[in-house]
Each structure stands twice: as C-alpha cells, then as structure tokens.
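Let us practice reading a record.
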Amino acid sequence: MAWVRQGLSARQIARELQRAQSIITRELRRNGRALIGRPRKVPGYDAALAQQRAVGLRQRPRRPRKLRGDAALWPEVLILLRAGWSPQQASLKLRRLHPDDSAWHVSHETIYRALYAMPRGELRRQILLRHKRAARRPQRRTPDGRGRMTDLPSIHDRPPEVEERLLPGHWEGDLIKGARNQSSVGVLVCRQSLFVMLVRLPDATAQSVLEGFTQAFARLPPRLRKTLTYDQGKEMALHRQLSKGVGLNVYFADPHSPWQRGRCENINGLLRQYLPKGTDLSVHSQRDLDRIAWRLNMRPRVSLDVRMPAEVFLERLYGRPVNFSIEDVIAVG
C-alpha cells in the first residue's frame, strides 16, 4: 500500500517483495480503486479493506466437492480406477451411464485433483494411476542387436483398407521383453477394435514366435485374420510360414518408425502396469496373460466412442450387439 502511494509500479513492488509480478498485478486488480465493480471512497490500494474483503470471502459457503468421501460418486470412480481405467475413461463412462443426472458428471481434471490431494503413500498404495513416472524419458536410437532381414513385404504395400481401420481382421504385433531380455510376451492388437491378445513365449526365437502366434490366430475365424503389421525384428524370420499357416499377410514397418504401429506401441505402454520393465515375464502363465488382456479389453476408449474393445470385437465376432455393465467391470477388476 505504501509503495503504491509512492507511485511504484507493480514490477518494482514485486522486485522489492521478491514475488512474481503477476501476484502483485492480480492483487491490485482485485482490490485496487474499484471493489467488485463499484467506485472506492479511498482511491488507490487500501490494505485494511483488502484484508477485510479476503476474510469475508473465506467465510462464504462454498459448493461441496463432488468427490468427497461421503458422496456416492467417489466409490464408483474408485471402482473404475481400480479396474485400470484412466480418469478420462471413468468420466466419460459415468456421463454415458447417467446422461440426465448431473450429480454423476465429473470431469477427469476433478478426478486427478482428488487423487493428488490424497497423501502420497495412500495414492501409491491404492495404485489408482497407470503411469508412475513423472516425466518422459529421453529417446535414444541405439542398435537393438537383433539383426535385419531382407526382402520383406513393406508396410507401404498394404491394402488401403488397413489404413482406414473400418474393417476388423487387421492386426499389429510386437514383443515386450523382461529382465535382461531373457523373457518375452507376444502382443497382438486389432487395429479396428483395439482388442488385445497376449501370447506366452518360452523365448524370443523365430520358432517360438511362429508357434505362439499361430496358436493365437487359429482361434479366430478367417474373416478376423487378414493382415499383421510388425517391426523388422528377427523373431519374425519365419513370417512366410505364419502367413501360410493361418492365412494372413504379414507386412513390416520401416526401421525406427514406431508410429507406423501406433496402436501396438500404446498398448505396450499400458501393459507395463501389469508387466513392469526389469521383471521376469516367464513367471506369468497363459491364463495370467489372458486375464491381463481382458482387463485392457474392458476399458472404454475415446477413439471407439467410449465403447470397450471387447464390445466392438465380440460384436464383429458374433454378428450382434454386445454390451457390458459396471458389474461386469467390477468382476474383471
């Protein structure tokens, strides 16, 4: 107040108080010269009146928080988060289940704020958020040591319908590695429905991948196994036998181009919640992997109009609409 009366600018006052200039500017805008749009009797900034207004605002009743402990909404949100859903997916699903009841409408930002308001130990114990790292790691292009194959069918030769993602039966594939690259799990993702299949592999050899992928695809009808897009790892050296055995065409992405298999790369990141890096993946049985895949398939996706991959895929498989309830989600969790 004294410096304002002396004619100092907001920048000079901020420098003297060792505060950001924006803090001083906001305070002068709130409590200087005009109070809630009405002319002040005392021109300039009055500290006593500013304090009086701040105390009055603090005592005003506020709207109760939507995600408070005694509200019915918070337990429902926790159920979906514990099932592995993101705050955005939980928000969209609740809004779809209760379109006309605003009491069940909550934004994903509100859910995030409620989670981070928890004590850090409790948040970590409940494992409500999928990604644990605080920042993105730098990406380095280093040789992967797997070697390269020649004369491969290129991704650029795929039929146009693969890129459009309007029809099922087009897949992306990859391997995720365990500790010291001594264990592996095969990942297969349907481009149209985002449906995931996980394959237990004894090792990362071409023969093991051939047998594991053949068994996975053999469970599907021919109309749901058309193409497979993979990277140029040597574990796919027997791709011609795979194509002949299950009747799908295999295409290979360009080197160092993970965005050409973006759906599979995204699923790989989500799988690390259940199959962390640096752990032995061979301890997981095929039943364990099927359970993990089903949890991912029961999460709603924005790109599917908030439907679940399992709903979209099974609808194509059986030729009739399939819908899951919250009770089905709880059973999966």
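A brief commentary: The chain has three domains: 2-58, 73-126, 155-297.
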